[in-house]
Structures are given as C-alpha cells and as structure tokens.
Amino acid sequence: MDLSLNQLKAFFYAASLGSITRAADRLFITQPAVSLQIKALETQCGIRLFHRSKKPLELTDVGKRLFQVTGKIFSLVGEAEKIIYEQSKLISPPLRIGGTKTLVRHFLSSYISKFRKAFPQIQIRVDEGSSESMLRSVLEGRNDFAIVGRLPYHETLKAIPFMKDELVLLAAPGHPLCEKGFVSLEDLRGENLILREKGSGTRRVVDRVFEERGIFTSAFLETGNVDFLKEMVITGNGVTLLARMGVDKDLAAGRLLCLPLKEGPLILDIDIVLSKDKTLSYADEEFLKVLLH
Would the pLDDT of 88 be above 60? Predict the structure, then answer.
C-alpha cells in the first residue's frame, strides 16, 4: 500500500487540532482539500478514521492508533528537516521557546541574556500565551519546549519540574478586605473576582482550591491580559489572585496590596515541557542547561 504523506498530514492535523477548519488553516490549504485527503485515505485503506456524526471531531479506535503513529512520523519529518537545515546553513536552527505571559515578561529575559552571551549566533523566537495554548504549541511542533504553570499533560509530553511561585490575593489600597488581619477564602464569597482566563496554570490552581473547599463562585471578569487585570484591581473594581513574580513592582509601588490568606500560601508549580518523541537540537540542549543549572 502506497500511503500518501499529504493524506497522513491532513489526518494528523485534523485529529490533533480537533477540526477540519483549523487543520486547513495550519496547512495553508482549503477545508475541502483537507476533507478530500482524509476521505481518500479512508477509501484507499477501507477504514473509518473519524465518527462523522460527532462534533468536535472524534477518532475511531483505528483512528486513535493511526494518530499515535502519525505523531511519530511527523516528529521524525521535523527532525529530518532540522538536520537538512543545520547542514545547509552550518548553524543551529532558531531556538523556539513558548512561555506563559507572566514568565516571559518578568522572568525569562535574564536566562535569554545569559544564553545569548554564550551563543550569540543562535536566533531565538519567543512565543507567549496561556499554559494550555503553549502546551498545544509543543504538541503541534511550533515550539521546541514551553515553560508553563502545571496542567494535566498529554501522554506524549515530558514535564521537568522547574520552579514554584506563590499565588497572592491582591486588592487596591482602601478595599474593605484590607481592614482584616487575615482573609479567608470564605471572605471572597460575593466579592468581584477578576481572574486569569481558563487554560492558565494560575486559574487552574484557583479553581481547584475553591472547589476543594466547596466554595462556588464565578469570575466577575476573566482575561488573559495581566496588565489589564491588574489595572481593574488597582482602580477598585475587584480582587484577584495572581503569581507573585508578576506583581512585585506593583506591590513595591503601593498600587496593590497583598492580603494574607488564612489558608496559607497557594503554590503554583511551573514546569518545562517538551515532546517525548522529539530529538533536541544543540540550541535546545544548551538553553535547557542554562535554565536548569
């Protein structure tokens, strides 16, 4: 059987992204072209890869098995492309790093500066987003690895524990909660909560802590824009829980106050996440050494 790499690629991206439309955008082809490639593969092999009646796309049993294999295939294709690139340019390919917005803005620059001093010839590309979106970027091969707040990880990903940060309860000076010596999570019932978006490691910790204590509340506002979130709190529109590394300057300037929690510190675990199937480039290995030593 002469399998077409283009057909397998159409299937792989539709399965990994859960959508024919998103696969077409990723492959820079039309949606009908993706559907035709998948249909041709199914017809040639006499199998069904997706349950057509399910939305979002749901793989059949054989589809799930083929998806695991195609993940390895395109990981190897990526490695082959990297070898060719390195040989043709005689330099390491660009270092592609994904990170959460807070980590990129308040933490990553010192490590990049140290790496650049040792390897000035290596180009660096930094991508930022929620922990969930950065994990997806590693799964899809858009980033070599990502530094994220801990989430449930796909089985094909490897997580290296990196550091811990504390989530702190923040309010503007003069907020009624500032009059309390210690604030309990129970005190947040009825408060205007302004929180990070779903898919962030910070939000996962907050949701888990509230759920464990049987406190059911919803965010008055949720956003992935941390600067906007802090501004809403500073102007007295509510309270928030954020990683300390992103608010130290605001605390020092007195724009925000950190309210001590009776329940003790809330810890955010931060990991370096990479694909188990990917062979690291020279640049990847050297940057990981900078991060971990």
Answer: no
103 pLDDT more than 70: yes
Range(s) for CATH 1.10.10.10 in the chain? 5-71
**Tens-place pLDDT, residues 111-155:** 999 999 988 888 899 999 999 999 999 999 999 999 999 999 999
As its CATH architecture, domain 89-162+270-292 has 3-Layer(aba) Sandwich (3.40)
Instruction: Grade residue 264 by pLDDT with cuts at 50, 70 and 90.
Output: confident
pLDDT digits (tens, 9 = 90+) for 158-200: 999 999 999 999 999 999 999 888 999 888 888 889 999 888 9
Parts of the chain belonging to CATH 3.40.190.290: 164-268
CATH class belonging to 164-268: alpha beta
Residues 214 and 264: their CA atoms lie apart, in Å, by 17
- Residues of each domain in the chain carrying CATH 3.40.190.10: 89-162+270-292
Total residue length of the chain:
293
Q: Which CATH class is domain 5-71?
A: mainly alpha
